[in-house]
């Protein structure tokens, strides 16, 4: 019996179902993403918070096992995302809608592609090349220029995608790679740049920690939200706290270590712009916090005044209070004219009260 058209479309290779292949790739991608996130956060804490620079050694030995695992899983995670190219989310759960940002779902999907695929691959290229390629290969100017030309092409493509969302993302995700690749393209080889600036490898590895952790954390939470594991408010609050904290710690470390004086100008310009963006963001965040606190205190004060005014009004108001034509509030008993009552009673009964008084 001949196979149906539907079954033939599901078969990717003889005896291999496309659905099974997709599930296997998805599982491998998830595994690499989680490993990159966990190892990346551990290395980030060691390097930036504890001061133990485990990335300093570029030799493949026991001490460089975790950095190697991190870079490999980061690159594999970005490469495997190509298999789910059309399934990358085209939305975001930010407080500002896409319509308010002037973006379409297709543009948002391209931004997520640039972050989840291109950025992860790019941040692992130079660290892995400097770790594993011998010096003779790094001295080859033809190979070096071919690699950096591809890097420049990818970063320019990322700029065209990310500029719709914000040019600051391009500076964060691809600015340093773009400048460094241009310098290698016109200066010579990867080996010569490393000899001139020995700290360039350590910087690229630390920057990869920042980029990979931020990207993997966001994508993991969005996946959990799509499976109803976490809620949208939890996702939003977690990203608002995790991403700024990572960027602030990274920039403070760059300023404390004075990395801009150890790197070429092709890379230092991006660090300088990142510092400006972080300070502007910090200023905006502090202003927002102050505004929120002031509005909260003011609203509480207004509500307290309203409650106090209402209680005072309740204490002063009685069913026996009346307001005169002149606007004066008095007791109801004060407004009674007993003279009129007496005259009315006398006329109704036919009794002359004045005559009674004389008698």
Rounded to the nearest angstrom, the distance between the terminal CA atoms is 135 Å
State the secondary-structure class: mainly alpha
Poorly predicted runs are: 1-8, 329-336
What shape does the CA trace take? globular
Task: Please provide a written account of the structure.
The structure is a single chain. The chain is built from 14 helices and four strands. With about 350 residues, the protein is mostly helical. Strand 1 and strand 2 form a beta hairpin.
Spell out the blueprint of helices and strands.
Elements: H1 5-10, E1 11-13, E2 16-17, H2 18-49, H3 65-80, H4 98-101, H5 105-132, H6 135-139, H7 141-162, H8 167-187, H9 190-196, H10 200-226, H11 232-257, H12 265-316, E3 321-323, E4 329-331, H13 338-349, H14 353-358
Antiparallel strand pairs: 1-2, 3-4
Helix pairs in contact: 2-3, 2-10, 3-5, 3-10, 5-7, 5-10, 7-8, 8-12, 10-11, 11-12
